[in-house]
Amino acid sequence: MSQTYSVSLEKIIENHNLETVYLPKPADEILITTAEINRPGIVLTGYIDYFDSLRIQILGWTELGFLRNMSDDERDRALGYWLGLRPAAAVVTRGLTIPDYFIDACEKYEVPLLKTDEETSPFLAALIAYLNRELAPRITRHGVLVEVYGEGVLITGDSGAGKSEAAIELIKRGHRLIADDAVEIRKISDKTLRGNSPTNIRHFIELRGIGIIDARRLFGMGAVKPSEKIDMVIQLEAWDSTKAYDRLGLDNEYVNILGVRVPAISVPITPGRNLAVIVETAAMNNRQKKMGFNAAKDLMVNLGMEAVQPEDKEVDIWKN
Q: How far from 216 is each of 67, 202, 273, CA to CA, in Å?
């Protein structure tokens, strides 16, 4: 059974600078559990089938104008249909004046009422994006997440493989650290993963022989970033002379994280290999592939060889 996440109404109010008109209880005790948003137009006509009371309700010119044109009895009945279902909260947009009868109805049915000066569509988009991030399915995995040339690179491997050392070298080369040791990965959409660091270890890096360092204080604010999308995974592994490593890069390897396929490569570790340079090159090559250029295919064509159809392979980087 999938885990359900929640975000408090207090955090939503703070993040979107909402004005509180009425709260039945403290905002930090009111939890929102869905990123879906609703505009209650049809519910005000009395059709309440399929109504989801967990959703935040958004009202703009249309909804308030519809209520304003009703008789008192019709309006009371419409608000009873809707607010009687106890929706999670109601937000009035555009800085519109909220009629007293609407405030009274929210108080009667104990529905939180908020207000924003933003226009309806931009506010809807911003709120949905925020809730998608806060309520996204997530897992925490061992690894290092860095931003390299705008690409989010998740570096994985056994303890002592050199992940943190590679991160330090990348920081010195102008790239940015997102997370070391533990990476919280969130599924923002069916095609997008975003990674960040748990709050209590954010910006810290463990280096064997030196100890814990604070990358933000040591290298400056430009060396860190709070979160980044995950564009590729690089698995560091000890060199195995019996293993056949990919030398052309014709096949496409992927790792499945929360149902999202992410390009992945395995990099064997041997003494003297500059991992930072390898990660930089892999990041740039991954960007080129996304733009439709594959160096291995071009080489095959230049050598007069028939282009080979790449094979997609799913790999397991976290063997539990």
A: 53, 9, 27
Find tokens 């949905």 and name the residue: 128
From the number of C-beta atoms within 10 Å of its C-beta (0-12, 13-18, 19+), residue 165 rates as: middle
Q: What is the pLDDT of residues 62-84, one digit of tens each?
A: 999 999 999 999 999 999 999 99
At 272-304, the pLDDT tens digits run 788 999 999 999 988 888 887 777 777 667 777
Active site amino acids: 142, 163, 181, 247
Q: How far apart are CA 25 and CA 2, in angstroms?
A: 29
What does pTM read for this prediction?
0.79
CA distances from 70 to 44, 47, 64, 75, 104 (A): 11, 17, 10, 6, 17
Computed on alpha carbons and rounded to an integer, the radius of gyration of the chain in Å comes to: 26
Q: Which residue has the tokens 């940015």?
A: 176
> What is the SS3 assignment for 22?
strand
Structure token pair of residue 315: 């790999």
